[in-house]
Write a structure and sequence with these properties.
Pyruvate-ferredoxin Oxidoreductase, domain 3; globular; single chain; alpha/beta; six-stranded mixed β-sheet
Length: 196
Amino acid sequence: MKTTRLVIVAVGGQGNLLASRVLGEAALLAGIPFRMSEIHGMAQRGGVVESTLIFGERESTIISDGEADVIVGFEPSETLRTMNKGNTGTVVITNLAPLPPFTVAIGRGVYPDLGLLQDLIRAKAKKLIAFDAAALAKEANNVLAVNMVLLGALLHTGVLPLSTEDVKKAMIARTGKFSAANIKAFELGFAAAKLS
């Protein structure tokens, strides 16, 4: 089986770890070898949370610079910051709804222009899928479902060796009473990726 390397980057509280666990459980359902690790940083203070997921026979969870097949960013500037993990063959999916860091909020920093940010990512990647995942989460009646919207877009790419059915099963198992809204969010993300 071909090894597929995925990096998911978010700001604390955006649901990166839940998204990673859903993918891990989907891999288990499908009998696909899978490894995962997380770096929490200062997540509880709005810091970065990064997950690395490797599908296929590998012992290490380390994804070196230039090795990622897919990068999923829950926050646009963090997506750009993670581009060192990608290469010209990497597929990048990013939410375009910014969560400016504290320094921007207090006027000591400037948030990058979203158009320029996308241009910089496109210059380094094979493909960029970029849209407002927060708006789609609201449409799904769960503002916290940005992670599930982005999982839908990720599954649409076909890069991962997972089926949408297995991901939805894992999502239902993990999210319980919120699963209907999360499934809707997933489907909205899947559809949005078609348009990008």
